Amino acid sequence: xxxxxxxxxxxxxxxxxxxxxxxxxxxxxxxxxxxxxxxxxxxxxxxxxxxxxxxxxxxxxxxxxxxxxxxxxxxxxxxxxxxxxxxxxxxxxxxxxxxxxxxxxxxxxxxxxxxxxxxxxxxxxxxxxxxxxxxxxxxxxxxxxxxxxxxxxxxxxxxxxxxxxxxxxxxxxxxxxxxxxxxxxxxxxxxxxxxxxxxxxxxxxxxxxxxxxxxxxxxxxxxxxxxxxxxxxxxxxxxxxxxxxxxxxxxxxxxxxxxxxxxxxxxxxxxxxxxxxxxxxxx
Length: 283
Known about the structure:
It is a single chain. By secondary structure, the chain is α+β, with helices and mostly antiparallel strands. The protein is about 30% helix and about 25% strand. It has an 8-stranded mixed sheet, sandwiched between helices. Helix 1 (about 15-30) crosses helix 5 (about 205-225) and helix 1 (about 15-30) runs parallel beside helix 7 (about 235-255). The longest helix is centred in the C-terminal third of the chain and has 25 residues, at about 205-225. The two termini are about 20 Å apart.
C-alpha cells in the first residue's frame, strides 16, 4: 500500500532567508553527526537543468548511520546493506529527493518539496489529482513543539526551547502559541512524502517507520534552522556554495573516504527525468 503524507512546516523567515538557512543547517548537522565510523558521505554535487524544475544543484549522498537503525531491522542484513543512498535535485523553490536502500530494493521513497510565502494555507501546493488528494494525509509541523519518539532520540539534535528563544540579529521570537498566524515574515515548506514498501508481512510497518523518521528529521532540522538564525543570517548563496565545498572535503576526511570534493560517480549520472521514469511522478 502506497502511503502519501504531506508535511507543512511554517517558518518565521522569508523565502530567500530560508534557502540560505536550510542549506547552512543541513551542513552543520551533517558535520555534527559524522565521525570516523559513520555519518554522511557526499558523492557528488553538480549543477543540473530540467524541464520541470529548471536549473539547480544535484547532490548525491550516502548515509552510514548504522548505529541509529533499530535492532529489529538489523536482523535482516549486515550493517553495510542498510546504508542509505540519497539523490536530490534542488531548484529552489522546488526540489525532489529520492532515497534508496540496497536491502529494500523494491521499496521507493520520494520527497517532493514546494516552498511558498504563506503560513501553510495552500491546500494543494503539489497540484495533486483527485485520487492522490483522497489518499493524502496532511500534518502541520509546529517547530516550537518537541517530539520524544524513537527517531527524535536517535537524531539527537541540540535541544532549544523556541518558546523562549529570541534572535539577537532579527529580534524574531519567541515562538508563542498562535505564532504561525501572526509572524512576519513567514513562509511554508510543503513536503510530500510518498512511501511504497511492497513487502509481505513487513511493508506497512516499514512505511510507518520510515515516514515517522522523515517527520522527526524535518522537525529537528527546521527547529535548528531557526535556532541558528544568528549564525547564517546575512550570508549569500555564493558563501553557502563555498561552505558546501569545504564541508564535502571535511566529511570525506572525517570518514576517511578517498576522492576529491565534488567528484563524480563513475559512469553517467541519472537525470531527474530518469528517476521520475523509475519511481513515477507524484505531481
